[in-house]
Amino acid sequence: MRHAKGQWWHYVLFAIAATIFFDLLTGVLLGPVLFGGSMREAFIGQIPFTVKHLLGNIFLAATVSPAIDRWAVSNRQLELGWKMARV
Q1: What stretch of H or E contains 65?
Q2: Separation CA 53–CA 17 (nearest Å)
Q3: Cα–Cα distance list, 64 to 4, 6, 8, 26, 54 (Å)
Q4: Cβ-based burial of 61 (10 A; exposed 0-12, middle 13-18, buried ≥19)
Q5: Could you give the CA distance from residue 69 to residue 33 in angstroms, rounded to a whole number?
Q6: What was the pLDDT predicted at 2?
Q7: Would you tell me the crossing angle of helices 8-23 and 39-68 to the nearest 10 degrees?
Q8: Are 66 and 73 in contact (CB under 8 A)?
Q9: Average pLDDT of the segment spanning 39-50
């Protein structure tokens, strides 16, 4: 089985979209529901956290994800397809 080779910027784009979605859901929408604050306070308070969260995730997506792709996903020994074909 062959998969498309992921480029580092594919991982970065996904990290940006996923981080913004996750922080919007958990910090801005659920924060006021769970802790009783206003949506405006949650949004303003979430901005510095989201910026730091984005920086960390972008760094990890650009460095660690391609390394995992080269090591684990591209490693034929870790595929189940060739093992299942012999059964």
Answers
A1: helix 39-68
A2: 12
A3: 18, 12, 9, 25, 15
A4: buried
A5: 38
A6: 54
A7: 160
A8: no
A9: 95
CA 24 from centroid of its chain's CA atoms: 14
Q: Residue 51's pLDDT is what?
A: 97
Q: What's the distance, Cα to Cα, between the start and end of the chain in Å?
A: 17
Q: From CA 87, how far away is CA 83, in angstroms rounded?
A: 7
Q: Is the confidence at residue 63, as pLDDT, over 90?
A: yes
In percent, the amount of the chain with pLDDT more than 90 equals 62
Whether 11 contacts 61, CB under 8 Å: yes
Q: For the whole model, what pTM was predicted?
A: 0.77
